[in-house]
Amino acid sequence: MSKVNGDVLECDRKYVWHPYSAMGKDDPMFTVESAEGVRLKLVDGRELIDGMSSWWCAIHGYNHPVLNAAVEMQLTKMSHVMFGGLTHEPAVRLAQKLVEITPEPLQTVFFSDSGSVAVEVAMKMAIQYWNARHLPDKQYFLTIRSGYHGDTFAAMSVCDPVTGMHNLFSNVLISQYFVDAPICRYGEAASESDMAQMKSCLQENKQKIAAVILEPVVQAAGGMRFYSADYLNQVRQLCNEYGVLLILDEIATGFGRTGKLFASEHAGISPDIMCVGKALTGGYMTLAATLTTAGISETISTGDPGLFMHGPTFMANPMACAAALASIEMLLSSNWSENIRRIEKILAAGLAECHKMTGVVDVRVLGAIAVVELDRPVDMMALPYQFVEQGVWVRPFGRLIYLMPPYVIDDVDILTLTRAVCNAVQSL
Ligand SMILES: *Cc1c(COP(=O)(O)O)cnc(C)c1O
User: What is the value of pTM for the model shown?
Assistant: First the structure.
């Protein structure tokens, strides 16, 4: 067994890129053999409690009989067919379901393969919409700093300019409009200075701005910030006032993670265009979707060139759609809202002692998301080994140690995760 592990790891180092990684380095790396419920099983037999949900996706845990059955059933019919000129029940039923559970004005669905592409699609929709309305200068986007919207070029152009390394790609990145990330935190009223920045940028540049694009309430990979829902609500009003669309990127926040089914519900607003991904399939396969209103769809479809100019090869993959439909139905038929409150409470209790530890700047919990913000970056050479030794899978970034467990995790396992985080913070 360990021989196989050695070989796999050796070849991995030699041939395989990992996310945001370098080749030829000795970064900690662990080989997973299987996963079940909230546990990842390593090839050496160790089991790790998953604190990450595989980057926010695996909300029902791993190897789930219901999701397995949905995928297996679809596999016996067809794994994939092209979506140009052909359709199939999994895609249609999933689109119907997404329209049903997202805010009312969203009525049409464009499927794509990943979150970044869903963001590209959203940005193209906004540009094509204004073009069809004979306002072709509206091709730029306004966003807030500390955001993350994906790694493809247009998505990257609206990521935080510093953490998104905009200087590295300066000649190919579109330069968009940025205002500071809101200082007003979740639970607070919008601050006047935050609103003033947004307002003056819209006022000055509305002829060029197609849409404001934001992660609602939780800025995820850009810094795990939780900002005021009132701010989001007022941004919605400003967009209406200045004739600018609002794109909400719910890729990280969708499907219950923040305590609401979609984070826009904290602000009681609806976007003109919305992106979902990550937990859409319960972490089973890669799938994302961009939803928009009947009005925008119609304007794009009737204006020049009379088509929406995008069409991925693997659009609406039937197995991914089947998994997504099963995942959403399972989520909705569970007592998910109460369950997220349970997780929130235990995460907060388990991390309470971190508040007083040296090096801790902030501890925050919202829904099934817990963040310990430190005053310095963690040691990514040592910390992963330390977590694995404690039987947990936690992957910090920068100055942030965070937990985002699968919703099926029990109280005892949550407390094992929070204990491991407390130990890690203490040992800094
Ligand atoms: C992860 C993420 C993306 C990108 O999704 P990929 O599937 O990794 O391309 C976009 N927006 C947000 C808010 C995300 O969290």
Answer: 0.97
